[in-house]
Amino acid sequence: MDSKKETQAPRKKRIAVIPGDGIGQEVVPQAVKVMQAAGADVDLTTFDWGADRYLRDQVTVPADGFAMLGRDFDAILVGAFGDPRVKTNIHAKEILLGMRFKMDLYANVRPVRLLDAALCPLKGVEPKDVDFVVLRENTEGVYTDAGGVFKQGTPDEIATQEDINTRKGVERIIRYAFEYCERHTKLDGSPRNRVLMCDKSNAMTHAGSLWQRVFKEVSGEYPQITAQHMYVDALCMQMVRDPRQFDVIVTNNMFGDIITDLAAGLQGGLGMAASGNIHPGKTSMFEPVHGSAPPIAGKNMANPFGAILTAAMMLAHLGMAVEAAKIEAAVLEAVRQKKTTQDIGGPLGTREAGEWVANQVSHT
Ligand code: NAD
Ligand code: IPM
Ligand code: MN
Fold this sequence. Notes:
Layout: H1 2-7, E1 13-20, H2 24-37, E2 42-46, H3 51-57, H4 65-72, E3 75-80, H5 90-102, E4 107-113, E5 131-137, E6 147-150, E7 158-161, H6 167-183, E8 194-199, H7 205-219, E9 226-231, H8 232-241, E10 248-251, H9 253-267, E11 274-278, E12 284-288, H10 305-317, H11 321-336, H12 350-362
Parallel strand pairs: 1-2, 1-3, 3-12, 5-10, 8-9, 8-10
Antiparallel strand pairs: 4-5, 4-11, 6-7, 11-12
């Protein structure tokens, strides 16, 4: 009966947690601890997918794994994949790119925010100057593995790597960018109203022409939003020359990968950058931008803030805006008080920095 339905408590959000490899195993527990301290009403299930499991039983993704994630969970929280013992990186490809591609998580949303001027390597740049987002196409481009090798190991060897750009794929990420402006404001409350499409259409003419045509067409439907364009090489220079000029950047899979590491540099390094892999209405996946960082893994040195901010992003996506805001405020306070790991100038270890943020969150 309807009345019974109305009185039922809202179901807890079910989160699949996949710490993965290297520092993923250290930063994800901190993100989980902070979510719990924030009082987020979540039900967590941890999966051991990663290099250790692969080396043990050759399984990267268990049978039916992606269908299970989509069916049984509201969101997925991931650490990182990559292990020097797995030279082919096959497990990372099958798990991480598998989730992105097979679950069709077409929008890789990578916010770029500077929490404190001290974290930015650029002179005279303040937090209000770095507040943009990169929307990276996440299901095609050069990441599809189309291509191959011919006459391998001979002097005549040929290797091809195809850049796949579909009308549907290009259109939906570009449209996502314009709609993103309508759903989000900047941190200071002002509207997001500029979308910049980044490509290399002066050299990659076939794919570039498709991106250019679709961008022109879709931008015409949003006359209140300014449409801009930059070639990716020029954009890299502009990003370090004057990050103030950016608002929403939309680009293909590979350019998005590269420019978001550069953008992480503006935020204090890879340890600070968060991301979401999103398909509206489907189970989406959230992960810090950084990788498994083998040289610092297991040393309690990794910065957990990228993972913690990623958890906040996931909670906001799931409708827990209050908990997300509490977490973001606590990370900001940790940065201001230098309760951080060494990569951003503090004296703490991964666990201690996570603990400080969890404490801060539970007192707000
Ligand atoms: P990386 O992001 O792991 O590390 C790059 C640099 O940033 C290193 O100097 C590292 O020490 C530092 N760094 C990264 N995260 C940090 C953190 N949280 N705190 C402090 N310092 C941090 O990239 P890489 O070295 O190019 O790759 C290592 C492995 O990770 C590779 O196997 C790669 O394929 C994989 N990788 C995975 C993902 C992912 O799973 N999403 C992303 C990037 C790289
Ligand atoms: C990222 C990573 C991945 C990518 C790798 C590990 C395949 O660099 O998430 O940014 O290139 O997308
Ligand atoms: Mn990357």
